[in-house]
């Protein structure tokens, strides 16, 4: 008597996202481990690095100083972005179970972002000056969520009738070109150091055009590449930055102190000190910050 064993290895459509999530998780883990081991093995090498060779990511907050960006920071940002995307687009809001899951995601996100500075610096800077990075991260998350609630869509250039009704290659290519140009504008704005303009501009496209045309912030990569040999333009950027940032810094310091439990209006000396820390000319392209090893 022969028994027929009929196995069905097909993944139900409802579980495909989970399957892709698992595959991406496993692949990313092994790739990350491989890259980290390669960087560690070549940490003491004095040979010049090729463009394709993996290396640590460092960002310069001030000339001559670098902050090593650990991959956990990238992971947290990706988790937040994908989580907000799924909460916004994935399921109809009438499903109560999904609404409960969204509440827990909001609670977990607040707990993670409140310690974002610890993740970024890998040390307890909660009450220190660097701890204000957590407050900045919370501000950004609230701004993005608020724009989504108001109906703004960062991918609105795809949500047009021509994409749905006209399936010709020319029409689709036109939409893709608009999308690419929008993303290029966002990259230019971010290279000019205008993070908030770039962030909100992804929802309100005219802001990207304004940010791309106007002067760069003096410490941004754009200023480093284009203003270091043009002292008059760099001076204009520094003066403009100080004038525009003063009321922003005053409000930011007051709000951050209020959230931290010590609400008080900052005096001029504190505001000037914060402006001195934030505003500086970009170093020349040949001046490189020392590379940190993980």
From TrEMBL:
Which stretch is the leader sequence? none
Give the record's keywords alphabetically.
Membrane, Transmembrane, Transmembrane helix
Record field: transmembrane = 16-36, 69-91, 98-122, 137-157, 169-190, 196-216
Q: Which residues form a coiled coil?
A: none
- Source domain of life is Bacteria
What is the name attached to this protein's record?
Integral membrane protein
Report the source organism: Mycobacterium deserti
């Amino acid at each position: 008597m022969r028994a027929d064993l009929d196995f069905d290895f097909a993944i139900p459509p409802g579980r495909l996202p989970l399957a892709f999530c698992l595959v991406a998780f496993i692949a990313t883990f092994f790739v990350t481990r491989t890259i980290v081991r390669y960087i560690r093995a070549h940490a003491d090498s004095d040979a010049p690095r090729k463009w394709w060779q993996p290396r640590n990511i460092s960002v310069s907050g001030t000339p001559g100083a670098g902050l090593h960006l650990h991959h956990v920071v990238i992971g947290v940002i990706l988790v937040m972005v994908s989580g907000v995307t799924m909460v916004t687009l994935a399921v109809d809001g009438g499903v109560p179970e999904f609404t409960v899951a969204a509440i827990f995601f909001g609670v977990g996100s607040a707990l993670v972002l409140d310690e974002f500075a610890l993740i970024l610096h890998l040390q307890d800077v909660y009450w220190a000056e660097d701890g204000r990075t957590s407050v900045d991260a919370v501000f950004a998350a609230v701004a993005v969520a608020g724009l989504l609630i108001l109906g703004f869509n960062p991918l609105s250039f795809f949500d047009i009738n021509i994409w749905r009704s006209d399936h010709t290659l020319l029409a689709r290519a036109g939409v893709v070109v608009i999308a690419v140009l929008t993303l290029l504008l966002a990259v230019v704005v971010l290279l000019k150091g205008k993070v908030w303009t770039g962030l909100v501009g992804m929802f309100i496209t005219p802001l990207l055009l304004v940010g791309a045309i106007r002067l760069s912030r003096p410490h941004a990569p754009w200023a480093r590449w284009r203003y270091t040999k043009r002292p008059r333009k760099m001076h204009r950027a520094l003066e403009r930055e100080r004038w525009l940032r003063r009321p922003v810094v005053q409000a930011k310091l007051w709000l951050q102190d209020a959230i931290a439990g010590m609400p008080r209006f900052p005096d001029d000396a504190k505001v000037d000190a914060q402006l001195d820390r934030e505003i500086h000319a970009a170093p020349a392209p040949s001046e490189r910050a020392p590379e940190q090893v993980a």
